[in-house]
Amino acid sequence: MARTPRRHRRLVLPLLCLLSQGATALLFAIFVRYNHETDAALWHWGNNSNVDNEFYFRYPSFQDVHAMIFVGFGFLMVFLQRYGFSSVGFTFLVAAFTLQWATLAQGFLHSFHDGHIHVGVESLINADFCAGAVLISFGAVLGKTGPAQLLLMALLETVLFSVNEFILLSLLGVRDAGGSMTIHTFGAYFGLFLSRVLYRSQLEKSRQRQSSVYHSDLFAMIGTVFLWIFWPSFNSAPTELGDGQHRTALNTYYSLTASTLSTFALSALVSGDGRLDMVHIQNAALAGGVVVGTSSEMMLTPFGAMAAGFLAGTVSTLGYKFFTPVLESKFKVQDTCGVHNLHGMPGVLGALLGVLVAWLATHEAYGDGLQSVFPLVATGQRSATSQAVYQLFGMFVTLGFASMGGSLGGFLLRLPFLDSPPDSQCFEDQVYWEVPGEQEAEAQRPLRAEEPDTQA
Amino acid sequence: MARTPRRHRRLVLPLLCLLSQGATALLFAIFVRYNHETDAALWHWGNNSNVDNEFYFRYPSFQDVHAMIFVGFGFLMVFLQRYGFSSVGFTFLVAAFTLQWATLAQGFLHSFHDGHIHVGVESLINADFCAGAVLISFGAVLGKTGPAQLLLMALLETVLFSVNEFILLSLLGVRDAGGSMTIHTFGAYFGLFLSRVLYRSQLEKSRQRQSSVYHSDLFAMIGTVFLWIFWPSFNSAPTELGDGQHRTALNTYYSLTASTLSTFALSALVSGDGRLDMVHIQNAALAGGVVVGTSSEMMLTPFGAMAAGFLAGTVSTLGYKFFTPVLESKFKVQDTCGVHNLHGMPGVLGALLGVLVAWLATHEAYGDGLQSVFPLVATGQRSATSQAVYQLFGMFVTLGFASMGGSLGGFLLRLPFLDSPPDSQCFEDQVYWEVPGEQEAEAQRPLRAEEPDTQA
Amino acid sequence: MARTPRRHRRLVLPLLCLLSQGATALLFAIFVRYNHETDAALWHWGNNSNVDNEFYFRYPSFQDVHAMIFVGFGFLMVFLQRYGFSSVGFTFLVAAFTLQWATLAQGFLHSFHDGHIHVGVESLINADFCAGAVLISFGAVLGKTGPAQLLLMALLETVLFSVNEFILLSLLGVRDAGGSMTIHTFGAYFGLFLSRVLYRSQLEKSRQRQSSVYHSDLFAMIGTVFLWIFWPSFNSAPTELGDGQHRTALNTYYSLTASTLSTFALSALVSGDGRLDMVHIQNAALAGGVVVGTSSEMMLTPFGAMAAGFLAGTVSTLGYKFFTPVLESKFKVQDTCGVHNLHGMPGVLGALLGVLVAWLATHEAYGDGLQSVFPLVATGQRSATSQAVYQLFGMFVTLGFASMGGSLGGFLLRLPFLDSPPDSQCFEDQVYWEVPGEQEAEAQRPLRAEEPDTQA
Questions:
Q1: Which of residues 344-363 of C touch A (CB under 8 A)?
Q2: Which positions make up the signal peptide (chains A, B, C) (predicted)?
């Protein structure tokens, strides 16, 4: 059996890449066109001022989001001692594929008219957001799935993400700029249900590789820090221009400072000897960005952002310490990166915070800006209370799509020809990568002599 | 005694985090409000064009500054072989705390009206600047202070930073956009005086850890390069819009190229065998950004920027080679990162350069732009010479605040319950962090076998 | 002989740095002035609105390009196990020098009037582009040249780059915004011809160092990912404002996703056992950015961008697998980083794609935007076919300049006092850098025990 998967893999991954690329290219040729701000003829037809091109309002934020997806997520997952190539490499592959596929899936639902999908900088941001959700799910199954499985997962998840997003934003009129629901809650529970279906009772066999070494933890901090600094751009990238983007960035900034402080406090408190745990710092400190994903465009107030961030950092750190083990032992969910703690719980909290802040919205607090944040309330089609109920409903819709989609995905990924790594070869780059020095190294030294910088 | 600090630490760090977070949250709730450009009602009240929102002029620069603080400073200090977790982790903690606290301290002094502090993107930039000063001071005491000490240092330094900044910019009418005085000179001498008070005569016991390994030097270069590329944004982030930001970025760019060339030249010259020293490249090459912090918004000319950068790189490299040892042996100042060479001397040089360029300011050279750069000179309230004298005075005020503040801070940080690391455990992550593989590693190999990639 | 070079180097590198810095500073003093948008008097003279300052349209893109040059190129070349200091350090030195020198060379040719060179944000972008070409050439000779040689190479290459660029863009009216020809083709073939002249028949002696270790490959991925995410800014930084920048960024984004998918597919296909090769992922995945350098500002269509990226990733991966060995054995070109695969072939393909897309340009497709993309066609001075012929001619001019320049450079770099590393000391940091722990390490362990994280 050891040889069959390898021969399979030799064809499955390339075939999947080539087939999916062929299909998206064909669909692009038929359906995808430049939008009004991107097309030479259309833009110049209206005698527009260049200052007004959407590009100048959104492209800097887009680039920050782009850095979060590829640098942030990619390196955050490099913490495993022998899975760095796969973490950053599969992030690269899966995200690149998702960007194409999400342009189509979201395009058909959001910007399809006159028989064409019209793309511009907002398409890029939305596609990156979808890639964010897929990478969150990847975090749950990191080390236990091969690249062909991940591509299939992305294929399915992108479709469901787009449908869920469409239902929330377009049909239900839910507000969720930074995606507490559509990105974090969806991505986390999709990944967790998927991981549940792929449960490995024999994962012990690879447990010695499921930890970090000194330098892999430093690489992971690159991911953490890039996610942390650019999160204000993430939440504000798709919001209304002007005060909307400005306020969203500000709220996210304060929320993240608070989640950082609570994470350090809790990490020291829950450890036996008062020392800090890198896993908490790398992850839970980011929960402040997740928890204001829905509400940061609203009049949350700087204090509100801070309180939310504090709570999220606390819940997330406690989750890593106390809930992750239970999740595996009781619920048979093996969550490699702890996405339940960083995206799942803070995402749900963020959705609930959005319910609360929407419920509190008044004409007095928002003035004419109410039109931008809650257009249906501003035009009198809904009361603030009604908006809050829709927000809550949106969360349950998201949980439903994520759990069903993740379960379905799990069964799909169990297809035997997808070349899943064996239980004894999880968290191991050599299964999928040519690793430098593997021959010499294998012959030479015993396992776990590989922490070169940590001995006293 | 070995057990008492650990029990202390278990409570001191979390308590400090929670108390300070509680206090800032309370003050935020009472005092901090969105400003006119961030508030939904206020922004829409005036029928503003979104193009005019300050966000679009300053947010991209802010993000670059944000990257410098967390990626740049954080990774620059990772050069120590066994202190990477602390370098990047404590940078994270201390900067996050400072961002909150500086919003308040600077807000009360700069943007307090009608009983409230009004925040927007400029508040974010200013808070990040204050965090920069605190991290410079951190560089002086790196490896010799625990996180609780650093939080207290940040608490004190932020207040003094804000007062000094207020005196210079608001009371004295001094120009210092990129902070040669307010950030670099202040941060460096605060840290150096603090380090003087905390002088450890027995630091030899930890000397074997006070050096780099091959990969830690590469991590540090991540910090260097991010600081280098984004420094034009740092100096230009708070300057006047239009030509002001444009010119500042340009001057900083040229100054940095020159400090890089002089650093390479001098590093090879002063070494015994013509080889380059990573310490110089990682640090002194950045001195060009520091030295034009005051003058880059002025009509410095590209040549002037280049000459200044060249001088700064030279002085800084010579400082690392010849002055740092003297600083420790004669002045009993142990300056781990050599902040005196990168921020202290170039900061003072930058202040003096500002004196010179202000003195040379004429209506002819600045035209109507004089109003933006030297408003008091443009309106005739001051002559250029008088402005130059004020600039010089501002430097001495800064040195005074920094030296007194740093000394005070040093005595504060000697409070015994703050859990300073013992002399034999400086520059060591394991004191404050759970380090992967420490048990196996400790049992296994002798000290300093940890340079795995450098042996021939 | 072993001692003479070291004594030489002690003077050659510093002297070259100081001389070149002195010369550029002098030329800056005489010739370089702020342009209309950077000068306080000139900008305020016209009563301009700050919104219109070029700074706000181009500075965010410039910063992305700046990150690509220093972070992207610098770290991409860190993949060698013992050459990380040199890769990132010499990138730093050579690029800093080139930025100064290119400001002059390009300034004399492009923005010289009234006896002065006028600089602004576009000068910064153009200088960074020139540095990109120089660093591509550096990639071909990486590990086999000392810093003094590299400075001389940059001196010569910058001049030829600027002349070639001037001929193409100004004399021939060729379009090449993202530099498929002027940057990638020029830089690659300059480097390859230079490497041909510097051919080392005894390079086997250093072959054991010409490979990666586990963590050096992860550092290289930092370079890859930063190049990948910011490439849309690279191609769009100098294009026309409005739809031009917008479309260029969009096309580049889609092209890169396709080259990533084809690289993963081909890498797995061409390996013996279906496993992926880090060399391909680190490099060939970027070919999509190169291949649309000329055409991404044109009406390429998203599908066209995708098809081009797919082709480039394929050609590039096949090049690494099959052509690089032939290049060395048959053509005696030792191409350390495989720049022929990443920049050479995709650059030529990109030039040809530009020929095709220019040939297809119609008034109907571009509307009034034709004026921005093909001004000579819009004004009737040329037909689209004629523009296509000029584009093709531009490619041959570039190949001519690159091959002659590279050959000339090769003979120049063979000057004996430039201290080239001996055949047995190539790809080795210790020749030019003080490396931590070298004494202990040398005494201690055999070669190639240095892959600490890859043994099972």
A1: none
A2: 1-25
Considering only residues 196 to 255 of chain C, which have any Cβ-Cβ distance to chain A shorter than 8 Å? 211-215, 217-218, 221-222, 225-226, 228-230, 232-233, 241-247, 249-250, 253-254
C58-78 mean pLDDT: 96
C-alpha distances out from residue A81 to A146, A217, A427, A449, Å? 17, 8, 8, 12
- Chain B CB within 8 Å of residue C19 CB: no
B9-37+57-416: CATH number: 1.10.3430.10
Q: Where are chain A's structural domains?
A: 55-414
* Spatial distance between the Cα atoms of A307 and A304, rounded to a whole number of angstroms: 5
A269, A370, A453 ranked by CB distance to B213: nearest:
A453
To the nearest whole Å, the CA of A417 is away from the closest chain C CA by: 14
Q: Is A21 close to C271, i.e. CB distance below 8 A?
A: no
The CA-CA-CA angle for residues B245, B247, B252, to 5°, reads: 95
CATH class label, A55-414: mainly alpha
Report d(CA B364, CA B378) in Å as an integer: 11
Q: What residues of chain A lie within 8 A of the CB of C233, using their CB?
A: 63
pLDDT band at A6; cut points 50, 70, 90: low
Q: Which chains touch C (3 or more CB pairs under 8 A)?
A: A, B
C239 secondary structure, DSSP code: S
On the 0-12 / 13-18 / 19+ scale of CB atoms within 10 A, B437 is buried
DSSP track, B167-181: IIIIIS----TT-II
Contact B229 C147 (CB under 8 A): no
| ipTM value > 0.90 | yes
Q: To 10 degrees, what angle do helices C121-141 and C54-67 make?
A: 10
Best to test chain A binding among C211, C243, C263, C282 (most A CBs inside 10 Å): C243
pLDDT tens figures, C185-197: 999 999 999 999 9
Instruction: Give yes or no for a contact between C265 and A9, defined as CB atoms under 8 angstroms apart.
Output: no
Contact criterion met (CB below 8 Å) for B78 and B216 = yes
Q: What is the CATH number of domain C9-38+57-199+207-421?
A: 1.10.3430.10
| Contacts of B266 by beta carbon, 8 Å cutoff, 6+ apart | B280, B284, B313, B314, B317, B318, B321, C14
Quote the CA–CA distance of C25 and C23 in Å, as a whole number: 5
Tell me the chain B residues in contact with residue C13 when contact means C-beta distances shorter than 8 Å: 264-265, 268, 274
The answer to whether residues B89 and A281 touch, using CB atoms and an 8 Å cutoff, is: yes
- Check whether B416 has a pLDDT greater than 80: yes
Chain A CB contacts of B67 under 8 Å are: 226, 229
Angstroms from C358 CA to nearest CA on chain A: 14
List, as ranges, residues 46-105 from C with C-beta within 8 Å of A: 51-52, 56-57, 60-61, 64, 81
Q: How many whole angstroms separate alpha carbon C248 and alpha carbon C236?
A: 5
Which residue in chain B has the smallest CA separation from A219? B219
Q: What is the pLDDT of residue B272?
A: 81
CB contact under 8 A, C63 and B233: yes
Helix/strand/coil (H, E, C) string of C129-140?
Answer: HHHHHHHHHHHH
- Taking CA atoms, B323 is separated from B143, B201, B273, B277, C24, in Å, by 20, 19, 20, 16, 30
SS3 C69: helix
CA B185 to chain centre: 9
At B292-314, the pLDDT tens digits run 999 999 999 999 999 999 999 99
Residues in contact with A123: Cβ distance below 8 Å, sequence separation at least 6, in sequence order: A35, A103, A106, A107, A111, A117
Chains sharing 3 or more CB pairs under 8 A with chain A = B, C
The alpha-carbon gap from A315 to the nearest alpha carbon of chain C, in Å, equals 31
